[in-house]
Amino acid sequence: MDDSYKWGVVLIACMAIFIIVLDSSAMNVAISTLVVELNTTVSIIQGIIAIYALIIASFMLLGSKIQDILGRKKTFLMGLIIYACGTITATLSINAGMLLLGWAILEGVGAAMILPATTTIVGSSYEGKDRVTAFGIWGGIAAVGAAVGPIVGGIFTTYLSWRLVFGSELVFVAGILIFRHYLTESEPTLKWKDLDIVGVFLSVISLILIVLGILFLTRPEYWRYVAVLVGSGSILFILFLWWQRRRINNGLEPLSDITLLKNRLFGLGTLNNVIQQIPLAGFLFIIPVFLQQVTKLNAFDTGLTLLPASMVILICSLLGAKLSSRIDSKYVLMIGFLIAAIGTFILSGVFNVKTQMQDLIPGTVVFGVGIGFLLSQLTNLTMAAAGKDQETDASGLLNCFKNLGYSMGTALIGVLLLLSVFGGLTAGIESTGLVDNTTKDEIHDGLFNYMEKMQTGTPQIPPQLVPYAPLIIDSTISSAMRQTFTVLSLILFLGFFTSLFIPSRKNPT
């Protein structure tokens, strides 16, 4: 392989995107092990997964703008080093706090510098059909990283150690450094004094407050803070948009060119990226929770259950890129949303205490077909709306909202599941006929905490109720899964509806 190798840039981009998306899906199947080894709860692990995507989203605009100050290649490599430091920290974690620092914060900041640089490097390295193919491959590998992650995580967690999920990423980091000569540097167009510090503050804080507010819904004692966090975050985000517009009108360099959002293709493309990420993130979080809590599968079997969907996502990502050369990308999107919605609808009817892994495969495969089509189109379609001079801002905004969607998906769908469980436990307790009103609340809290610990240890409830605990929790989770997947179907139908308004534009380049 020499410097003239046509797909060298895509090779590097694919290795980078693979390790960034691998973490969340790979570690989802290790939830039970993480809860036990780090002495934590499902909600905290859910929070770490959501915060990982949130940190990426929050720092994405800053990471994108740094390209204009340092250059794309230098920004990419600097982000890679920060990411590697986070990977080492996560590998050596001895508690949830250390995992949060390494995985969510350091890896998140590193990824926020890598992702926009990767998008613009790929976008600027290819044209025409090669550009469509490059983004299709890139999107497909992103899908594989998210979807194959469960089987990778399952193998490591069950037979070796979950820590190797993070440790193995250092091999990819080394590979990227070896092949870095394929990357071309861009000339810096800004200086540090041009950086919009106020915009950085407003964008980071607003997004963090909104997602934290959603995560606080998992515990009733925190509900009084939810409206304050989400409300203040929303106000700060509106202020951010106003501040960006003000800087643009005054001839100053904004953190991001928000005028792109007025472009119909870019705005709707970004919206559909967010809508697509929410069910994908929710799916990858709650399916392993069900499989490990109710069907009592280990990490490997959990990953094995998701493997057919993983393969289908890869195949359909590649097919979708080919399909867009024959029909308008808009219609590929519409088909993708519709098929994914059918998949979640099928899944909404299969959850009960007797559900086995094979019962889930038909629905997950149909869902995977739809997601594969979506991932093959969304990045290229959205980026096609940006001119050459807007690619940096466009990639920053797009990746910011995509990761915000993933973070919100993990938070919203996880919260919806936990709230459904929290509310449903009361009926399960009453069905035993062994409690009175004076002890019901204590039993409810004891069962919920037992569920939060992935049914490990002994539930803190009256001894006569202990034999009923697994059945009560399993029945409640099954019911909650049915409700949650119905909501996922509605979200995907919303994506189908919004994609109707995307301008028809065959093979956008």
TrEMBL record:
It is a multi-pass membrane protein. SUPFAM superfamilies: MFS general substrate transporter (SSF103473). It holds the Pfam family MFS_1. Its main location: membrane. Keywords: Membrane, Transmembrane, Transmembrane helix, Transport. It is found in: Membrane. It comes from the Archaea. The chain crosses the membrane at residues 7-31, 43-63, 75-94, 100-123, 135-156, 162-183, 195-216, 222-244, 265-291, 297-319, 331-351, 363-383, 404-429, 484-502. GO terms for molecular function: transmembrane transporter activity. Residues 9-507 form the Major facilitator superfamily (MFS) profile domain. GO terms for cellular component: membrane. InterPro entries: MFS, MFS_dom, MFS_trans_sf. Gene3D superfamilies: MFS general substrate transporter like domains, Multidrug resistance protein D. This is Major facilitator superfamily protein. It comes from Methanobacterium formicicum.
